[in-house]
From TrEMBL:
Keywords assigned by UniProt, alphabetized: Transferase
Coiled-coil ranges per UniProt: none
Signal peptide: none
Keyword Transferase: yes
Cited SUPFAM superfamilies: CoA-transferase family III (CaiB/BaiF) (SSF89796)
Name this protein carries in UniProt: CaiB/BaiF CoA transferase family protein
Xref: Pfam families: CoA_transf_3 (PF02515)
MF terms in GO: transferase activity
Amino acid sequence: MAGPLTGIRVLDLSRILAGPWSTQCLADLGAEVIKIERPNEGDDTRTWGPPFFGEGDEALAAYYMSANRGKQSVAVDMASPEGQSIIKKLAAKSDIVVENFKVGGLKKYGLDYESLKALNVGLIYCSITGFGQTGPYKDRPGYDLMIQGLGGLMSVTGEADDKPGGGPQRAGVAVVDLFTGLYSTIGILGALHHREKTGEGQHIDMALLDTQVAVLANQSLSYLVSGTAPKRQGNSHPAIVPYQSFETKDGHMILAVGNDGQFKRFCDAAGLPGIAADARFSTNPGRVANRGDLVPVLAGVIAGRTTDEWVTMLEKVNVPCGPINTLDRVFDNEQVKARGIQLAHKDSLGRTLPGVANPIRYSATPIEYKKAPPMLGEDTDAVLSALLAE
């Protein structure tokens, strides 16, 4: 069954994570993705390890594998006139170009949007940078960690400053890169729809900082509405109580009470009916205002049972909760297994590579994983002989 983007060709000039994450998503949806890589070097993330799958010349970094399935790797020297000519010819036959060079970095090669638009008026060209194509920071390099700090995420992530271990903390994965990659995909799909109506392509200007500020969501609006900057408060929630981690008899668990009914059911199950009836705690605004009195009481009770005992008890009364799993337990989870989230696919060397599925579930055009992350340049001859001969 053909994917929804079957027939769409993507020329991927990006590397590291934000761009490759976007183009991998497009590949998952059925697009043909041609990844241009530097001969003998390739995408920087090919060396970002350990861990590596395989050894020696056949090794693939796990980091690279996470963002490059479904693509064809073509090794071309962009700095050479011959390489520039090849990329221009490929762009003329592509629907989408994705790049994450510094602002103006591709102009000297004749591979900027205006140059390629002259060859292909319908081309959709997505540029991903740290700070965008305009503004006083446009020429600065931008990396996920520094944007997490500059863009405010680290001001609301981590334990409170007055607690043990307090201070700024980055997210455990490169969320700015990943969100920017997803927003880039959304922007590209919108541009494809626009082109379908008008025949015209366009330039998409994506910035890590823009994305970071946008995805602060309720935290951004809390500041804009109140005028008070939110602070780090560990695993607790600024506007919902109890919605945090608690220590149990054998570890930790998450209790995520989202409404007053759930709170009452939790209290009844935990043997605390008087707490739910207390006017200070019967409503969420009251619990937020009085969290200092409530949370220690709950913590004392929760510490008396194991995580599994709490999860079993609270699931029966429909109170959201769960363990804090390590990744071995995540991939061994029955729900994760039932949804087929772990992949296994063959690469060009006949090896079975692991992967993680795209979470999009179509009813009419289910995603198929037809190609494992490629070795450097493995598709160069096949792609160039097929496309440049046309």
